[in-house]
């Protein structure tokens, strides 16, 4: 897969995760993005995007909301 294609897939996936956080918490997109950036999710997707994208966005949001990710 070309780097550009991978980046587009990653961007779309992240948009889905942000949307899921936004909907489930009833917060604006910028706030949802901030929460994700302050959680381990961002490090995981940077270091192992294939592993992260293997699971649906809902999986990561569930982890976030169940406090399995500690927010700063």
If you had to describe this structure to a student in words, what would you say it looks like?
The chain is mainly alpha-helical. It has one domain (3-65). Helices cover 75% and strands 0% of the residues. The chain has 5 helices and no strands. It has helices at 3-25, 29-37, 41-47, 49-54, 57-65. The termini are far apart. The mean pLDDT is 89.
Descriptive terms for the model:
mainly alpha
Secondary-structure blueprint:
Layout: H1 3-25, H2 29-37, H3 41-47, H4 49-54, H5 57-65
Helix pairs in contact: 1-2, 1-5
> Mean pLDDT, rounded to whole units?
89
Q: What is the total domain count? A: 1
Helix content: over 70%
Distance between the termini: 34 Å
Radius of gyration, in angstroms, nearest whole number: 12 Å
What characterizes the major β-sheet? Answer: none
What is the number of strand segments?
A: 0
Q: What is the H/E order? A: HHHHH
Structural class based on helices, strands and sheet pairing? mainly alpha
pLDDT < 50 stretches? none
In terms of DSSP E residues, the strand content is under 5%
Number of helices: 5
Q: What coarse outline follows from CA principal-axis ratios?
A: globular
In brief, what are we looking at here?
The chain has 72 residues and is mainly alpha-helical.
């Amino acid at each position: 897969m070309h780097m550009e294609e991978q980046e587009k897939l990653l961007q779309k996936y992240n948009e889905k995760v942000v949307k899921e956080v936004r909907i489930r918490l009833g917060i604006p997109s910028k706030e949802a993005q901030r929460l994700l950036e302050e959680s381990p999710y961002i490090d995981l997707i940077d270091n192992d995007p294939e592993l992260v994208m293997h699971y649906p966005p809902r999986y990561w949001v569930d982890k976030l909301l169940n406090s399995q990710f500690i927010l700063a």
